[in-house]
Specification:
mainly alpha
């Protein structure tokens, strides 16, 4: 098979480049780069109660005092919310029933032109 001069020159250039690349020494990185990347991008576990470990060194009496304070605060907020809701309900005036004269009843129909078919046909005929 005959080859053109341009293709032969390109093939020679590519093979020479491949020989130069294969002659280069293989170098290993000084440290494992992927281990460093994995260590810095590893997903961290979400531990919402991890801050409680700080209470491990406290005395049991202090822990009980903190728990009692927290329980009292929760109870106070609950009672306040309940009383606030009761006051809001007490202030709310009942809604009077609707006036039967002001009620509008709408009849539902499958007819898109609401029973005016004859009038529509007559209008179209006159066009």
């Amino acid at each position: 098979m005959d080859k053109c001069k341009e293709c032969a020159a390109l093939l020679e250039e590519e093979t020479a480049f491949a020989r130069r690349l294969s002659a280069l020494p293989v170098e290993e990185p000084a440290n494992d780069v992927w281990a460093l990347v994995r260590a810095r991008t590893r997903p961290r576990m979400f531990r919402p109660l991890a801050w409680l470990r700080g209470f491990a060194g406290l005395s049991s009496g202090l822990k009980r005092a903190i728990a009692a304070t927290a329980l009292t605060a929760v109870a106070a907020v609950t009672i306040y919310s309940f009383n606030f809701n009761l006051q809001m309900v007490a202030k709310h005036e009942p809604v009077p029933p609707p006036d039967p004269k002001g009620v509008v009843a709408v009849k539902w129909s499958d007819d898109p032109i609401g029973g005016h078919t004859d009038a529509l046909v007559e209008f179209i005929d006159k066009m």
